């Protein structure tokens, strides 16, 4: 078979002129065949046989169905969309609103979601109990004081953490990081959280539930904390980010092991784009620029939001601390190693 190589003397030394086919004698053919293999990708516009541009392998799936909540935790997703980070990586994001991290897991299992934001407690619990086979894609949000608060109304009988005993407290989903935070904070104060009646409802519904007295208190996150304080005079009763829960990892992004194995380039593209935006979110002004849209936050409220941290890497040791905290508060009996869940 005759082999035509798109090389000439000037092309080999970096000429930008078009490549031409060169017919070689047999003694030179073997040598230049090896040389071409090395240089062919360095010569613009030259293909090995056809003369076509080399094709760079892309993502396996161009559209990613992503589960999110209307909370500040996912501001980086919206920043990445706004700034074109996902587009630059060759993927499009289709957002689907979920009630909580636990609600996103069935979507991963049944294929309705490709990736979901969720709290680490729900991810770790589902993995430990065999309810899902998950891979942790990226970190999302880490707690700071005053941004994970149990609040109530000014006229409520609940004034102190001790008053939460035997009361009804709203959380967005059961057995998640919100419930863990309440349990851990009450335990740290010598209070029995098993006496609390946890009521499950979406974050956007909690303010009205407090006003109607459907619940005695609610674990709120931003932007709902500041909104409730400004609109109904909500009063903090318990800052849950204390004691063993200081710097508590709140949530991140996960996918199913099946999706990760079948579409590794897609997941890598998603993660690269998101990490860029996670770093951008370290600037509070960046977060404020998007929450007014996706979370429908008034600009005046956006200026005073209590924000946590947006890590760019997953800290396995911190996640092991979450596992220990879950076990200490009766929310996990099985063993699970977060390190084995990493991609």
Automatic annotation (TrEMBL):
It is found in: Periplasm. It comes from the Bacteria. Keywords: Signal. Its main location: periplasm. Pfam families: NMT1_2. GO terms for cellular component: periplasmic space. Belongs to the bacterial solute-binding protein SsuA/TauA family. This is NitT/TauT family transport system substrate-binding protein. It comes from Kibdelosporangium aridum.
């Amino acid at each position: 078979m005759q082999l035509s190589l798109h090389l000439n003397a000037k092309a080999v030394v970096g000429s930008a002129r078009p490549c031409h086919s060169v017919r070689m004698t047999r003694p030179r053919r073997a040598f230049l065949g090896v040389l071409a293999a090395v240089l062919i990708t360095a010569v613009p516009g030259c293909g090995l046989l056809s003369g076509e541009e080399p094709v760079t392998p892309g993502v396996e799936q161009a559209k990613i169905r992503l589960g999110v909540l209307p909370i500040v935790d996912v501001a980086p997703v919206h920043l990445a969309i706004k700034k074109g980070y996902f587009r630059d990586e060759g993927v499009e994001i289709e957002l689907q609103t979920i009630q909580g991290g636990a609600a996103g897991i069935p979507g991963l299992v049944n294929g309705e979601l490709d990736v979901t934001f969720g709290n680490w407690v729900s991810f770790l619990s589902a993995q430990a109990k065999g309810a899902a086979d998950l891979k942790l894609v990226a970190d999302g949000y880490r707690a700071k004081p005053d941004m994970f608060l149990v609040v109530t109304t000014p006229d409520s009988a609940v004034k102190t953490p001790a008053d939460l005993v035997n009361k009804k407290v709203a959380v967005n989903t059961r057995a998640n990081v919100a419930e863990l935070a309440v349990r851990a904070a009450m335990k740290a104060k010598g209070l029995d959280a098993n006496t609390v009646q946890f009521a499950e409802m979406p974050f956007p519904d909690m303010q009205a539930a407090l006003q109607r007295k459907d619940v005695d208190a609610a674990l709120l996150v931003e932007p709902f904390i500041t909104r409730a304080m400004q609109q109904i005079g909500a009063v903090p009763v318990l800052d849950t980010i204390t004691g063993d829960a200081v710097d508590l990892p709140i949530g991140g992004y996960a996918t199913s092991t099946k999706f990760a194995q079948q579409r590794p380039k897609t997941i890598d593209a998603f993660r690269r784009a998101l990490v860029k935006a996670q770093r951008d979110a370290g600037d509070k002004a960046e977060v404020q620029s998007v929450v007014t849209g996706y979370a429908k936050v008034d600009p005046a409220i956006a200026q005073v939001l209590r924000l946590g941290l947006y890590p760019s890497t997953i800290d396995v040791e911190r996640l092991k601390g979450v596992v220990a905290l879950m076990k200490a508060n009766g929310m996990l009996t099985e063993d699970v190693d977060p390190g084995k869940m990493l991609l």
